[in-house]
Design goal:
- By secondary structure, the chain is α+β, with helices and mostly antiparallel strands.
- About 35% of the residues lie in helices and about 25% in strands.
- It is built from eleven helices and twelve strands.
- Strands 4-5-8-6-7 form a five-stranded antiparallel sheet.
- Helix 3 packs antiparallel against helix 6 (about 125-130).
């Protein structure tokens, strides 16, 4: 952070946006700060602290049946069930994947929006949010909603235009939805190499509301939309063996020291099968 020349602790979103819209000097948002301390983006000279904006609230909009997670909600808040978090499968999977992100000290500082903006290939929490149909409230010239999947595809461009995330919204479509998280890592406590979050509802043996997020097979977590479509309104026993290999064959993951492309593709198939079967049976 040796290049930082200005530090602004803003009190309104409008004040933050005015600073972010400046083309020069280069500006970055800081809330928890875990991705910036010691590793600030090259050339950043201005830090905009949004910790005073009140974006650390968790609320359940019962009228619209939507869970609203403030951008500054920490990972540990999700783990501890802070705010309006009852014991349901949705909240359980948020707790599980937030806990998988890091150790306690980092979870106490790292924020939800920070996890999204800096999401790496295998982020458990972002993989979970994809499977939960998360939408972001983005502020640029005006507030607008954007699906998380779309944001991840264009996040560098969006953030370079001076955008700010104020909250993440998760629809609570049905109390019958079930979730499962599966992962593979070097050790039981390690960050995942590949991970999968599956969501579905089952009635009379037929799947519905199928969502499958996969981390570790692309630059950021992705959804297996073709597999979701192939399983929707189908019998799990009759269609999983047919649809899963087709979906996995389309993946083209990068290889690295943690695992080759072939290993990551194979693990994605194994973990997707486990997660779908477990979610359907719980």
């Amino acid at each position: 952070m040796l290049n930082v020349q200005e530090y602004h602790r803003v009190e309104t979103i409008e004040e933050a946006l005015a600073l972010l819209r400046r083309k020069h000097p280069a500006t970055a948002i800081v809330s928890g700060g875990t991705s910036l301390v010691g590793d600030a983006p090259e050339g950043v000279e201005v830090m905009v602290d949004i910790s005073a904006l009140g974006l650390d609230q968790i609320t359940l909009d019962r009228e619209r049946n939507v869970l609203i997670l403030g951008a500054a909600v920490t990972h540990q808040m999700l783990v501890e069930g802070a705010g309006d978090l009852p014991d349901t499968p949705l909240f359980d999977i948020l707790r599980t994947t937030a806990h998988a992100m890091s150790g306690l000290n980092i979870r106490n500082r790292a924020t939800l929006a920070g996890a999204i903006v800096t999401a790496d290939s295998a982020s458990p929490l972002v993989t979970c949010l994809l499977a939960c149909d998360a939408e972001l409230t983005l502020h640029t010239d005006e507030a607008r909603s954007a699906p998380l999947s779309g944001f991840l595809a264009y996040r560098e461009q969006i953030m370079s235009e001076g955008a700010l995330i104020s909250d993440i919204r998760l629809p609570i479509a049905s109390p019958d939805l079930r979730f499962a998280y599966e992962r593979v890592a070097r050790t039981p406590r390690d960050y995942p190499i590949v991970c999968v979050v599956a969501r579905c509802a089952v009635k009379d043996g037929i799947l519905g509301s199928v969502r499958i997020g996969v981390g570790g097979v692309a630059a950021t977590p992705i959804r297996l939309t073709a597999l979701e479509f192939g399983l929707e309104k189908k019998s799990l026993a009759g269609f999983l063996d047919r649809e899963l290999p087709r979906a996995i064959a389309t993946l083209n993951p990068p290889g690295d020291w943690l695992g080759s492309a072939e290993y990551r593709r194979e693990m994605a198939g194994v973990l997707a099968r486990r997660a779908i079967l477990r979610a359907a049976s719980e």
